[in-house]
Amino acid sequence: MIARIWRGVVRTEDADRYVEYVNETGMPHYMATPGNLGAHILRSDRDGRTEILTLTFWASWDAVKAFAGDDPTIARYYPEDDAFLLEKPEHVEHYEVPYSSLSPNA
């Protein structure tokens, strides 16, 4: 299993709307991709800024590439991301998951 982690930063006053936007754009796209095993949005508010993290789990590198394209290290963005994001990293992180308590059928 592969974990894919993307991070972005928004103003805290925009965080609820941005999470809603990600729920309407990225999350359905993750979940519709064959080989996706689950997707989560995490947030951390600090000093007027909110870090948003998406954590997705994939059955294989082929599944990651089906979502992300041939270079899975490049972050994917949606049309209104620029209106929200204070930080828009070019790359995402990937980790192999040697153990998880998540169901393999999640």
Per-chain topology:
Blueprint: E1 2-11, H1 12-24, H2 26-32, E2 36-46, E3 49-58, H3 61-68, H4 81-84, E4 85-87, E5 93-96
Antiparallel strand pairs: 1-3, 1-4, 1-5, 2-3
What does this structure look like?
The structure is a single chain. With 106 residues, the protein is of the alpha+beta class. It has a single domain, classed as Alpha-Beta Plaits. Helices cover 30% and strands 36% of the residues. The chain has four helices and five strands. It has helices at residues 12-24, 26-32, 61-68, 81-84, and strands at residues 2-11, 36-46, 49-58, 85-87, 93-96. Strands 1, 2, 3, 4 and 5 form a five-stranded antiparallel β-sheet that branches. Strand 2 and strand 3 (49-58) form a beta hairpin. The protein is globular, with a radius of gyration of 14 Å. The two termini are 12 Å apart. The relative contact order is 0.29.
- Please state the structural category: alpha+beta
How many domains would you count in the coordinates?
1
Say how many strands there are: 5
Taking all residues together, what is the mean pLDDT? 93
In whole angstroms, the N-to-C terminal distance is 12 Å
In the CATH scheme, what's the topology name? Alpha-Beta Plaits
What is the 3D shape? Answer: globular
CATH architecture heading: 2-Layer Sandwich
Give the helix tally. 4
Low-confidence stretches: none
CATH C-level: Alpha Beta
Q: Tell me the strand percentage band.
A: 35-45%
Order of helices and strands: EHHEEHHEE
| Helical amount | 25-40%
